């Protein structure tokens, strides 16, 4: 059965957020004043610290927050020293602070215990334990939490290894980075970041998790992996495809699904958030909301949100990019075309609005991941 929405009632026993909530329940059974457990991941490439997963006794989570680690000196020092930090009085200790600290104070958190997580020698992120009671983190409590910190770290690192293994397998097995058609590596980077941008914009309205948003960035580039099974004579044809050739081209969705299914089976990802999102992105990114897409002719919300997001991101970049058969369109024409497709019911209007309302970020992504030919022109 297809997943229609990330907020639909899925079995989530393999999802990291569910695992963290289970651990939090165990912790609170012994120390009920531990009101929040949160893991923020560190991105080595961007040097950003990002909210990722959390469990909160009041069910209110901080989501969609990113900040350069260098702008949080206390955490930067923890990363360098590998030590731990106990704060008995958050409002008194941090008169002014980061958005994260100000959010804690606004939600009534009074004390905290923070520990960095490492993958070997490399910083992977930070674990935050927070309480709405002052001075809640005694030596006894911290010693107890250290054991669970190691468990949470192993869960996250295992999850990351699985995701990285999926990406590596795809790159090796089907040559994604060197796709044989006209889509470049830069195109894949751009549409991945466009997809993440859209997902972040929709976090509140669709109750999306940071885990979902991060997976959009990781898995959006897999959308067309099935094209490795399409002959070059069709992939690289400069003119229009014949009806018979078009049927062969459309078969790349089935090929892609076969690849993803094999990878998920080999890695025992029968029903995880990552496997569901990959299957939906690969299998549904050519569906259109009015039912005119392929391979199944799905309508509207029958198409998963992640696939609707990728469809918008992919079309936007295709229109903005020079191809052998067309020049790059100017932004005003691209904007008009996307809004027209949304008005006609083919593209998800909410996803289109989310993308086009962030033009400054779009331009930044285009500049960071410009095709080499554009840089030299």
Keywords:
2 domains, elongated, disordered N terminus, alpha+beta, about 375 residues, 6-stranded antiparallel β-sheet
Please give a structural write-up:
A hairpin with a 2-residue loop joins strand 5 and strand 6 (122-131). 51% of the residues lie in helices and 11% in strands. It has helices at residues 16-30, 73-81, 90-93, 99-106, 139-174, 185-201, 203-206, 210-219, 232-235, 243-250, 252-266, 273-284, 305-320, 331-343, 349-356, 359-368, 372-375; strands at residues 36-43, 48-56, 66-68, 85-87, 111-119, 122-131. Helix 8 packs across helix 12 (273-284) and helix 14 packs antiparallel against helix 15 (349-356). The chain is of the alpha+beta class. The chain is built from 17 helices and six strands. It has a six-stranded antiparallel beta sheet with strand order 3-2-1-6-5-4, with helices on both faces. It folds into two domains: 31-159, 2-Layer Sandwich (Beta-Lactamase), CATH 3.30.450.40; 177-370, Hypothetical protein af1432 (Orthogonal Bundle).
């Amino acid at each position: 059965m297809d997943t229609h929405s990330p907020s639909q009632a899925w079995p989530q026993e393999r999802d990291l957020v569910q695992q963290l909530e289970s651990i939090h329940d165990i912790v609170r059974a012994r120390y009920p004043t531990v009101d929040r457990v949160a893991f923020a991941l560190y991105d080595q490439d961007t040097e950003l610290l990002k909210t990722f997963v959390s469990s909160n006794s009041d069910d209110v989570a901080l989501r969609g927050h990113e900040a350069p680690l260098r702008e949080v000196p206390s955490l930067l020092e923890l990363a360098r020293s590998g030590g731990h930090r106990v704060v008995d009085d958050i409002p008194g200790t941090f008169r002014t602070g980061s958005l994260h600290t100000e959010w804690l104070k606004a939600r009534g958190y009074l004390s905290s215990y923070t520990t960095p997580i490492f993958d070997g020698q490399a910083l992977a992120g930070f674990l935050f334990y927070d309480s709405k009671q002052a001075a809640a983190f005694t030596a006894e409590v911290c010693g107890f939490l250290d054991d669970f910190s190691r468990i949470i770290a192993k869960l996250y690192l295992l999850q990351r290894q699985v995701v990285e293994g999926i990406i590596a397998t795809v790159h090796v097995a089907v040559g994604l980075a060197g796709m044989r058609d006209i889509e470049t590596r830069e195109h894949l980077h751009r549409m991945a970041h466009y997809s993440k941008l859209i997902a972040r914009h929709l976090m509140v309205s669709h109750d999306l998790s940071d885990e979902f948003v991060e997976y959009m960035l990781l898995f959006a580039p897999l959308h067309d992996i099935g094209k490795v099974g399409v002959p070059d004579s069709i992939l690289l044809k400069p003119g229009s495809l014949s009806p018979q050739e078009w049927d062969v081209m459309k078969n790349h969705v089935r090929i892609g699904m076969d690849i993803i299914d094999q990878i998920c089976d080999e890695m025992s990802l029968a029903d995880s958030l990552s496997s569901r999102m990959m299957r939906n992105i690969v299998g549904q990114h050519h569906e259109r909301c009015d039912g005119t897409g392929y391979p199944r002719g799905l309508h509207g919300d029958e198409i998963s949100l992640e696939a609707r997001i990728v469809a918008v991101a992919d079309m936007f970049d295709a229109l903005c990019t020079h191809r052998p058969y067309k020049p790059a369109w100017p932004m005003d024409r691209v904007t008009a075309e996307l809004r027209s497709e949304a008005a006609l019911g083919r593209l998800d209007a909410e996803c289109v609005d989310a993308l086009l309302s962030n033009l400054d970020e779009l331009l930044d992504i285009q500049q960071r991941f410009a095709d080499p030919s554009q840089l030299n022109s």
